[in-house]
Amino acid sequence: MSKLIITPDSSASADGKLISITPESAGWTYVGYDMIKLHEGQSFRSETGDREVCLVLLSGVADVSTASEQWNAIGRRMNVFEQTPPYSVYVPNGDFYKVVARTSLELAVCSAPGRGGHTARLIAPEQVGVEMRGYGNIERRIHNILPEQEPADSLLVVEVYTPNGHWSSYPPHKHDRDALPEESFLEETYYFRVKPRQGFAIQRVYTADRSLDETLVVGDGEAVLVPRGYHPVSAPPGYDVYYLNVMAGPHRTWKFCNDPDHHWIMTENSKE
Protein backbone atom coordinates (compact mmCIF):
# COMPACT_ATOMS: atom_id res chain seq x y z
CA MET A 1 0.00 0.00 0.00
CA SER A 2 1.12 3.54 -0.71
CA LYS A 3 2.79 5.42 2.14
CA LEU A 4 0.45 8.31 1.32
CA ILE A 5 -2.59 6.33 2.54
CA ILE A 6 -3.19 6.17 6.29
CA THR A 7 -5.53 3.38 7.36
CA PRO A 8 -7.51 3.39 10.61
CA ASP A 9 -6.26 1.24 13.47
CA SER A 10 -8.73 -1.62 13.66
CA SER A 11 -7.63 -2.33 17.23
CA ALA A 12 -8.25 1.28 18.27
CA SER A 13 -6.52 2.28 21.48
CA ALA A 14 -8.44 2.86 24.68
CA ASP A 15 -8.74 6.57 23.89
CA GLY A 16 -10.65 5.83 20.67
CA LYS A 17 -7.98 7.19 18.33
CA LEU A 18 -8.36 5.49 14.95
CA ILE A 19 -5.95 7.68 12.97
CA SER A 20 -3.01 9.72 14.22
CA ILE A 21 -1.02 11.85 11.79
CA THR A 22 1.71 14.04 13.24
CA PRO A 23 4.31 16.17 11.47
CA GLU A 24 6.87 13.58 12.53
CA SER A 25 4.94 10.59 11.19
CA ALA A 26 4.10 12.40 7.94
CA GLY A 27 7.65 13.66 7.43
CA TRP A 28 6.64 17.28 7.19
CA THR A 29 6.36 20.40 9.37
CA TYR A 30 2.88 21.76 9.94
CA VAL A 31 -0.26 19.60 9.69
CA GLY A 32 -1.55 17.12 12.26
CA TYR A 33 -4.75 15.09 12.12
CA ASP A 34 -6.39 12.64 14.54
CA MET A 35 -9.62 10.76 14.01
CA ILE A 36 -11.31 9.72 17.25
CA LYS A 37 -14.40 7.59 17.77
CA LEU A 38 -16.10 7.60 21.17
CA HIS A 39 -19.07 5.71 22.54
CA GLU A 40 -21.73 7.48 24.59
CA GLY A 41 -20.25 8.50 27.96
CA GLN A 42 -16.63 8.17 26.87
CA SER A 43 -14.32 11.17 26.98
CA PHE A 44 -11.09 12.39 25.40
CA ARG A 45 -8.75 15.01 26.86
CA SER A 46 -5.54 16.50 25.51
CA GLU A 47 -3.21 19.46 25.96
CA THR A 48 -2.66 21.60 22.88
CA GLY A 49 0.99 22.38 23.70
CA ASP A 50 2.50 24.53 20.98
CA ARG A 51 -0.27 23.75 18.49
CA GLU A 52 -3.67 25.26 17.77
CA VAL A 53 -6.53 22.82 17.26
CA CYS A 54 -9.84 22.74 15.43
CA LEU A 55 -12.18 20.06 16.78
CA VAL A 56 -14.73 19.07 14.14
CA LEU A 57 -17.72 17.03 15.30
CA LEU A 58 -18.14 14.89 12.21
CA SER A 59 -21.16 13.15 13.74
CA GLY A 60 -22.78 12.96 17.14
CA VAL A 61 -23.36 15.20 20.16
CA ALA A 62 -20.81 16.14 22.83
CA ASP A 63 -19.83 18.46 25.66
CA VAL A 64 -16.59 20.33 24.95
CA SER A 65 -14.57 22.30 27.47
CA THR A 66 -11.30 24.25 27.44
CA ALA A 67 -9.44 26.16 30.16
CA SER A 68 -11.83 29.09 29.83
CA GLU A 69 -14.94 27.86 27.99
CA GLN A 70 -17.64 25.18 28.17
CA TRP A 71 -20.15 24.18 25.49
CA ASN A 72 -22.76 21.57 26.32
CA ALA A 73 -24.69 19.30 23.97
CA ILE A 74 -23.22 20.65 20.75
CA GLY A 75 -23.59 18.67 17.58
CA ARG A 76 -26.53 18.21 15.24
CA ARG A 77 -25.79 15.86 12.39
CA MET A 78 -25.50 12.16 13.03
CA ASN A 79 -23.85 11.29 9.71
CA VAL A 80 -21.53 13.35 7.51
CA PHE A 81 -23.69 12.58 4.47
CA GLU A 82 -26.55 14.64 5.91
CA GLN A 83 -24.60 17.47 4.21
CA THR A 84 -25.30 19.99 6.96
CA PRO A 85 -22.37 22.02 8.32
CA PRO A 86 -20.82 20.63 11.52
CA TYR A 87 -20.22 22.11 14.94
CA SER A 88 -16.53 22.81 15.53
CA VAL A 89 -14.42 24.29 18.32
CA TYR A 90 -11.22 26.28 17.90
CA VAL A 91 -8.68 25.83 20.74
CA PRO A 92 -5.45 27.87 20.83
CA ASN A 93 -2.00 26.62 21.75
CA GLY A 94 -1.17 26.61 25.47
CA ASP A 95 -4.67 25.36 26.30
CA PHE A 96 -6.42 22.00 26.69
CA TYR A 97 -9.67 20.47 25.56
CA LYS A 98 -11.94 17.78 26.94
CA VAL A 99 -14.67 16.15 24.88
CA VAL A 100 -17.41 14.04 26.50
CA ALA A 101 -19.60 12.06 24.11
CA ARG A 102 -23.36 12.30 24.70
CA THR A 103 -23.97 9.94 21.77
CA SER A 104 -21.69 7.89 19.59
CA LEU A 105 -19.22 10.49 18.36
CA GLU A 106 -16.84 10.86 15.44
CA LEU A 107 -14.36 13.62 16.22
CA ALA A 108 -11.70 15.08 13.94
CA VAL A 109 -8.77 16.81 15.66
CA CYS A 110 -7.04 19.16 13.20
CA SER A 111 -3.83 20.83 14.36
CA ALA A 112 -1.01 23.12 13.26
CA PRO A 113 1.53 25.44 14.91
CA GLY A 114 -0.06 28.12 17.10
CA ARG A 115 1.27 31.49 18.18
CA GLY A 116 -1.18 32.37 20.94
CA GLY A 117 -3.00 34.92 18.85
CA HIS A 118 -6.57 33.81 19.48
CA THR A 119 -8.99 32.54 22.13
CA ALA A 120 -11.09 29.39 22.27
CA ARG A 121 -14.41 29.72 20.44
CA LEU A 122 -17.35 27.75 19.11
CA ILE A 123 -17.84 27.58 15.34
CA ALA A 124 -21.56 26.91 14.93
CA PRO A 125 -23.06 25.51 11.70
CA GLU A 126 -24.57 28.93 10.94
CA GLN A 127 -21.04 30.38 10.85
CA VAL A 128 -19.80 27.90 8.24
CA GLY A 129 -19.72 29.22 4.69
CA VAL A 130 -21.48 26.89 2.22
CA GLU A 131 -20.85 27.08 -1.52
CA MET A 132 -21.21 25.04 -4.67
CA ARG A 133 -17.98 24.98 -6.65
CA GLY A 134 -17.40 23.88 -10.24
CA TYR A 135 -19.95 22.95 -12.90
CA GLY A 136 -21.37 19.82 -14.50
CA ASN A 137 -19.52 16.72 -13.34
CA ILE A 138 -16.93 18.78 -11.45
CA GLU A 139 -19.55 20.43 -9.24
CA ARG A 140 -19.19 19.75 -5.51
CA ARG A 141 -20.45 21.15 -2.18
CA ILE A 142 -18.02 23.02 0.08
CA HIS A 143 -18.27 23.73 3.83
CA ASN A 144 -15.69 26.37 4.82
CA ILE A 145 -15.21 25.53 8.50
CA LEU A 146 -12.05 27.53 9.19
CA PRO A 147 -11.16 29.59 6.10
CA GLU A 148 -8.42 32.19 5.95
CA GLN A 149 -10.98 34.97 6.56
CA GLU A 150 -11.65 33.60 10.07
CA PRO A 151 -9.21 33.95 13.01
CA ALA A 152 -6.47 31.35 13.45
CA ASP A 153 -2.68 31.25 13.34
CA SER A 154 -1.98 28.44 10.84
CA LEU A 155 -4.98 26.18 10.29
CA LEU A 156 -7.28 26.00 7.29
CA VAL A 157 -10.13 23.45 7.53
CA VAL A 158 -12.78 22.63 4.90
CA GLU A 159 -15.05 19.71 4.06
CA VAL A 160 -16.13 18.70 0.57
CA TYR A 161 -18.97 16.54 -0.80
CA THR A 162 -18.34 15.01 -4.21
CA PRO A 163 -21.46 13.40 -5.75
CA ASN A 164 -21.08 10.02 -7.39
CA GLY A 165 -19.68 10.29 -10.90
CA HIS A 166 -18.13 13.71 -10.15
CA TRP A 167 -14.59 14.98 -9.67
CA SER A 168 -13.30 17.45 -7.08
CA SER A 169 -10.03 19.19 -6.28
CA TYR A 170 -10.35 19.65 -10.02
CA PRO A 171 -8.93 20.81 -12.37
CA PRO A 172 -5.83 19.33 -10.71
CA HIS A 173 -4.23 22.05 -8.60
CA LYS A 174 -1.26 22.35 -6.27
CA HIS A 175 0.02 24.61 -3.50
CA ASP A 176 3.57 23.43 -2.84
CA ARG A 177 5.64 26.57 -3.50
CA ASP A 178 6.19 29.46 -1.09
CA ALA A 179 5.82 31.93 -3.94
CA LEU A 180 3.19 34.48 -2.94
CA PRO A 181 1.14 36.08 -4.32
CA GLU A 182 0.93 33.41 -7.05
CA GLU A 183 1.10 30.29 -4.84
CA SER A 184 1.33 29.38 -1.16
CA PHE A 185 3.03 26.37 0.38
CA LEU A 186 0.47 24.25 2.23
CA GLU A 187 0.71 20.67 3.46
CA GLU A 188 -2.64 18.90 3.33
CA THR A 189 -4.47 15.85 4.62
CA TYR A 190 -7.65 14.34 3.22
CA TYR A 191 -9.91 12.25 5.47
CA PHE A 192 -12.38 10.22 3.38
CA ARG A 193 -15.83 8.80 3.93
CA VAL A 194 -17.65 6.89 1.19
CA LYS A 195 -21.38 6.09 0.81
CA PRO A 196 -22.15 3.18 0.53
CA ARG A 197 -19.19 2.14 2.67
CA GLN A 198 -17.97 -0.67 0.42
CA GLY A 199 -17.09 1.89 -2.25
CA PHE A 200 -13.92 3.84 -2.81
CA ALA A 201 -12.54 7.14 -4.06
CA ILE A 202 -9.68 7.62 -6.49
CA GLN A 203 -7.05 10.25 -5.79
CA ARG A 204 -4.00 10.96 -7.90
CA VAL A 205 -1.04 12.80 -6.34
CA TYR A 206 1.58 13.88 -8.86
CA THR A 207 4.19 16.51 -9.63
CA ALA A 208 4.99 18.09 -12.98
CA ASP A 209 8.28 16.18 -13.25
CA ARG A 210 6.56 12.95 -12.10
CA SER A 211 9.08 12.46 -9.29
CA LEU A 212 5.88 11.84 -7.35
CA ASP A 213 3.08 10.15 -9.30
CA GLU A 214 0.69 7.87 -7.43
CA THR A 215 -2.89 6.89 -8.16
CA LEU A 216 -4.57 5.88 -4.90
CA VAL A 217 -7.64 3.75 -4.24
CA VAL A 218 -8.99 5.17 -0.97
CA GLY A 219 -11.53 3.40 1.20
CA ASP A 220 -14.09 4.65 3.70
CA GLY A 221 -12.36 5.98 6.83
CA GLU A 222 -8.88 6.28 5.31
CA ALA A 223 -6.74 9.41 5.06
CA VAL A 224 -4.32 10.62 2.42
CA LEU A 225 -1.18 12.72 2.83
CA VAL A 226 -0.54 15.38 0.19
CA PRO A 227 2.99 16.67 0.80
CA ARG A 228 3.28 18.28 -2.65
CA GLY A 229 1.94 18.11 -6.17
CA TYR A 230 -1.45 18.09 -7.86
CA HIS A 231 -4.14 16.01 -6.13
CA PRO A 232 -7.51 15.54 -7.91
CA VAL A 233 -10.26 13.26 -6.53
CA SER A 234 -12.84 11.13 -8.35
CA ALA A 235 -16.06 9.66 -6.92
CA PRO A 236 -16.99 6.53 -8.95
CA PRO A 237 -20.57 6.16 -10.20
CA GLY A 238 -22.81 4.88 -7.40
CA TYR A 239 -20.60 6.16 -4.56
CA ASP A 240 -20.78 9.59 -2.95
CA VAL A 241 -17.51 10.80 -1.43
CA TYR A 242 -16.92 13.11 1.55
CA TYR A 243 -13.56 14.41 2.68
CA LEU A 244 -12.25 16.74 5.35
CA ASN A 245 -9.20 18.80 4.37
CA VAL A 246 -6.65 20.18 6.83
CA MET A 247 -4.04 22.58 5.45
CA ALA A 248 -1.23 24.60 7.00
CA GLY A 249 2.05 26.17 5.99
CA PRO A 250 4.31 29.17 6.63
CA HIS A 251 1.59 31.61 5.50
CA ARG A 252 -2.10 31.18 6.26
CA THR A 253 -3.48 31.72 2.79
CA TRP A 254 -4.72 29.35 0.06
CA LYS A 255 -3.18 30.34 -3.25
CA PHE A 256 -3.04 27.50 -5.75
CA CYS A 257 -1.97 26.86 -9.32
CA ASN A 258 -3.87 24.61 -11.73
CA ASP A 259 -2.03 22.04 -13.80
CA PRO A 260 -1.43 24.02 -17.02
CA ASP A 261 -2.26 20.91 -19.08
CA HIS A 262 -5.79 20.95 -17.66
CA HIS A 263 -6.47 24.60 -16.85
CA TRP A 264 -8.34 24.91 -20.17
CA ILE A 265 -11.28 23.12 -18.56
CA MET A 266 -12.09 26.20 -16.49
CA THR A 267 -11.19 28.57 -19.33
CA GLU A 268 -13.59 26.86 -21.73
CA ASN A 269 -16.38 26.96 -19.15
CA SER A 270 -15.84 30.66 -18.53
CA LYS A 271 -16.56 31.31 -22.21
CA GLU A 272 -20.00 29.68 -22.09
TrEMBL record:
GO MF annotations in UniProt: 5-deoxy-D-glucuronate isomerase activity
Keyword set, alphabetical order: Isomerase
Ranges in coiled-coil conformation: none
Source organism superkingdom: Bacteria
Translocase among keywords: no
Broad enzyme group: isomerase
EC numbers on record: 5.3.1.30
UniProt-recorded name of the protein: 5-deoxy-glucuronate isomerase
Organism from which the protein derives: Ferviditalea candida
